[in-house]
Amino acid sequence: MAIQHRLVEYTDGDTLLEGYLAYDDAISGPRPCIIIAHTWAGRSDFECQQADKLAALGYVGFALDMYGKGVLGSGPDENSALMTPFMEDRPALQQRMAAALATASQQAEADASKMASMGYCFGGLCSLDLARTSTYILGAASFHGLFLAPGNTEGNKVSAKVLCLHGNDDPMVPVDSVIALEKELSEAGADWQIHAYGNTLHAFTNPAAASPEMGMAYNAAADRRSWASLVNFLEEVFE
């Protein structure tokens, strides 16, 4: 077994984007593919490592790009400046996610009939927005993601299975937001799960997160449990 990877350029309108594709070359033929949406900082080594982990499980992992080839934030101010336009224009966010999904599904290693999405923080919101707007994914997962409804999907049915992995003490996602998402997904007819981890803050999968005063801290137990939940979820989604 050898995990292979390549960079894939694609576009959304006039914006050149670059994703990271990972797959196991010991497997022949197309296989299920999961696109991975990044945090507010942009596509980093972290998301590429998650793609590699998915490839080791026999999937294709595609770490997508929301901001543009080579565009990364260097800190909270730059990260916020990159993310905010998409938070304020959710149709644009949804269009960019659709471009990533289309690109990933066109790769030779990917089975276009077996696509799913996942994401971290801002990327968790992106993954949920794809579930809200696309009928082409079978599953959508969110790791410590934001739950805010986009405002343009009322009445849409959500055909994808949905898994949200949430820190119960995440100050960015208060209880009211969780309840609102539960109501939204139920009304959309979704098969949904929300796993809340006790004594767990935002960014719990990121070993570099160490700012509890800002509501962000790594939690090894929640990290391990959430990944195990994702693995089980994907097996169900692609059965």
Structure, described:
The protein has 239 residues and is an alpha/beta fold. The chain has one domain (3-237): Rossmann fold (3-Layer(aba) Sandwich). Helices cover 35% and strands 27% of the residues. The protein contains 6 helices and 10 strands, in the order βββαβααβαββαβββα. Helix 3 (90-105) packs across helix 4. The longest helix has 18 residues, at 220-237. It is globular.
Describe how the helices and strands are arranged:
Layout: E1 3-12, E2 15-24, E3 31-37, H1 45-56, E4 60-63, H2 76-88, H3 90-105, E5 110-120, H4 122-133, E6 139-143, E7 161-167, H5 175-187, E8 192-197, E9 210-211, E10 216-217, H6 220-237
Helix pairs in contact: 3-4
Descriptive key words:
239 residues; alpha/beta; Rossmann fold; eight-stranded mixed sheet; two-stranded antiparallel ribbon; 35% helix; 27% strand; globular
